[in-house]
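Below: protein 1.
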Amino acid sequence: MKKTSIAFLWQKFVDRIGEDLMHFIFPRYCIVCGGRMHRGGKVFCLQCAANFPYTHMQAKEGNDVEQLFWGLLPIERAHCFMYHYSHSPFSEIVYSLKYKNMPWVGVEMGRMMAQELLNETNFFSGIDYIVPIPLHPRRLKSRGYNQCDCLIEGIYQVTKIPKRDDVLVRKRHNPTQTKLSRGERINNSEALFACPIPEDLTGKHILLVDDVLTTGSTIVACGDAMRLVRGLKVSILVLARAVD
């Protein structure tokens, strides 16, 4: 027993030295400010972490995200992890994930979101599947990955809730919604998705995961595609809430 304990402590020491060496040779830099990160840092540094735009809505029933869907889509619960201001340095997190070919950012942010909710709430209680907002095959090919899948990978590592990416599909390739008005976004999202195997969702509770929430029109369109599924419950988890 004593030898086992000594061997364990020695291995931990060796692992720590190895991590320190790798961090020295291949340092990581903060996505937000560009500064060199502390050992163990993943996406942003300690200084940026202290100023991170958390929403702090995880324990609030009837929070801003839930209210956005009142009268549009019946949901069980909803949460958004951070606020996304277009001219804030923290917008680099979303930009890096979507446009700079950095899927690992999504995985780490997914882990952070899930860990926060798991530690402080029962948000994941009763959820059967995690479902990404699907990309059209054309956009998936050009980007190389669905950023929502990256977030879900991180969430899965914490919760072990399985992903289903076959129960919701995008029917057409719609223009990007970045510069559209609220009304244009709603029109752009009409009849956008389909639920090809509704029987697989009967009586289930799913968690829809998206990267950025603006008007909610895309998520409402997903709900419309599944509105005839009997006994379906829907919750929502989003990385960033766009704020003017």
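Below: protein 2.
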Amino acid sequence: MTRELTRRDGLFGPIRVLERKSDGARLYCINGSIQTLMLPEGVSAFGYVHAAKLLAANANNLLMIGGGGGSLATMLARRGARVTVLDIDPAAEAIARDYFDLHESVRWLTTDPIVFIENCSSTFDAVIIDACDSEGLVSPFNQPEIVANILSKACPHGSLIVNVVAEDGAPSWGGWMAAKLASLGLSVCLYRSEEGWEGNEILHVRVDGPTDQLAITDLDQRPPEARTYLMSLRPHVSAQGRPAQKRKRDGEG
């Protein structure tokens, strides 16, 4: 059971913020699709968010494309990272700050991400693209050439981390994107969870260097909803990419 906290018109459809009566967790929904599920302690219940944070563990200056409720931005800011969020929807920042306790240090810009990146003279340690609807990445982030250009311009020496929604029973859209990026000569690893209810896949892309060395840490300190996803996360790469090595895992106790 949930109660509605607010309803607003968004650029991509009606936005609703709901609160679960059982535990106070808050949901950010667009057209009925859940974009954010944040627990009262300000931590995401989505395993893919925790995976993205782990992949960006060594990044101090991060750019996020797509803000949603801002749970990942807040989690990154809490560990001391400098976080800039780009979101084209004018309604998004107010909702993140008013209903999801967005960390005060997060820099949030309502702007076209492509225009920002083309005109930005600085680079970042990592870029996270989390701009999905129920069918996958929204345009233009569903185009491999655009994704590759973002990597080369915004974080040429760092990591590009992409959330990809995977439909149950459908061919892996993330696998297609991974193959296309690998064919452009990039180092690519697609992480896919073999268990749990989440349909999200995570792409880790670099100009060079390993992308398949995700270390899952502190499982006992993560929300129960996220543990199954993280424990069953496995690396995959296309035949055109570099072969995946055995995944590292530590700190599971």
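DSSP finds seven helices and 14 strands in the chain.
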